[in-house]
Amino acid sequence: MTRGLRAFKRWMKSHGVEYSDALLFTDGVEGIGVKTLCDLSVGDLIATIPKSACLTIKTSMAQNFIEDVGIGDSLGLAVALMFELSIGQESNWYGYLQLLPKKEPVPLVWNLEEVDTLLVGTELHKAVKYDKSLLYEDWKECIVPLVAAKQLNLNENYFGVEQYFAAKTLIASRAFEIDEYHGSGMVPLADLFNHKTGAEDVHLTSMSANSGSEDDDVRDNGGNDDDDRGSNDGGFDDDAKLSIEELVVDSFGDIFENSGIQKNHKTMATASDENHLNGHILESYSSAGDDPDALGMILIKNVKAGNEVFNTYGTLGNAALLHRYGFTEPENPFDIVNIDLNLVMKWAKGSFSNRYSRSRISLWKKLGCSSCSNQDSEYFEVTFSGTPQLDLMVLLYIFYLPDEVYCKMDLSLTTRMKVDISLSSPMNDELPSSIVDGVHNAMDIIFSAESGGSLPFSRETEDMATQRVDRLLTKHVCNALISLADIREGFYGASSLEEDMHVLKGCCRLREPKRYHSLSLRVCERSILKKMRIFASKSGCIRKGKKIYFAA
Ligand SMILES: C[S@@+](CC[C@H](N)C(=O)[O-])C[C@H]1O[C@@H](n2cnc3c(N)ncnc32)[C@H](O)[C@@H]1O
């Protein structure tokens, strides 16, 4: 065991952190991980962590001045972390901080040349540059004045821009949302568990008697932040976090529900004098106590002796994993690629005038269709299987609607909107709900307009959703999808997917992590684009052999 781990164990003991003696902390070339020495079962409580041992704005010695100047959330936590680092052994978390890496080598702390060469074309290229400029501004506006305020007597060597970026990488990769009072914070021990996509063994949860539902899982800050582009690029500009109370519909919910964990809390057994209990596990969750001031780590799966115990950082694609945690996973089913609306406009320029494109997009919006949006871009998602977002297919379909159908629909929608809006509040500039009813409704309106008022397929006998999509995929739409995939592919530069795959094979994950994971991201994204082309060409072929409802 390394010195850092030994000191950390002593620190845990003196700060009331208890853990099962079945847990083995490993410290190898790939960093720290947690294994089990004996079989563990669903519902086993393998660790408890007092909230007072978590490093948050509230628990930090810097609380007063952070709250006085009014910086909260992840910026405030970064200041708390930098402050605790700056006071060395004086810090309550010294034994914990010694174990942390100086920074997590995520793209935020790559130099600009690395970002521009390794990430070019990928979902992360723009996002990382955006983070860098935004965080630099935050530092200048909020942290520089703190250091300048001599009465705070801050050690400027710990509050430079480099130190701020490093703190942000640690927070992005290790912080959890604790509760409404503490906000997000560093949770010692819980942050030693590595991630496995969709197959985690353990959850961090609240130990309060009023808790015990899936709502109480303490959320890793990486999980599905609302501000993440397509929930796929992680994100450092993350002030909108969910507290435990808000986690009613959490992505972990199903797993927790199916885990068979008993949720009737009883009184917690008196803590042993020893930090590790002898029976391998601390408690089963059902007999663990009511302690609103503690967090518990609970097994949601059986884990065999000798295996690593994994947590999950959320259902994240590779762009998000690399962005926030600095690694990627092969064949990650949550991977997506985005097609920007601007890219669709670029494609449209080849065949249509700007005016024509704008009018078709306007009709698409009036029908209640939409793209995803983030920061200053609008985009469509393409899933791991290569299926493009339905709204994109509808937009492409609308581009090819005959003029007379387009005019008829536009006129009728505009008239309807005018009537509906004049009947509602004069301040209400949103579309009436009768019109904004989602992309499926939009398809029904289009198909019905094309066929002179009736839907040309049976609602009773066939699957409506499949019929709708099938009908959307005209030859024009399929060709447009292939062209969009080709244009998007062009962003990666001259090398082909096969060349990238070949280089990736020869690249060592441990020796060249930046090159390896960025190449892995490129290969995953380009493979999705390849699947999108196959989706479009197969759909085109299938249509040739089927009844075609309308001329394409
Ligand atoms: C919360 S920490 C987990 C503990 C960490 N391994 C350590 O040494 O302290 C998160 C970091 O661990 C690493 N990590 C976690 N899961 C991983 C995985 N499945 N593959 C590669 N690295 C992983 C990444 O560097 C990530 O940013």
TrEMBL record:
BP GO terms, sorted: methylation
Transferase in keyword set: yes
Protein's cellular compartments: Nucleus
Entry's EC annotation: 2.1.1.-
InterPro entries: N-lys_methylase_SETD6, SET_dom, SET_dom_sf, SETD3_SETD6_MTase
Family affiliation: Belongs to the class V-like SAM-binding methyltransferase superfamily. Histone-lysine methyltransferase family. SETD6 subfamily.
Protein's recorded name: N-lysine methyltransferase
Species: Amborella trichopoda
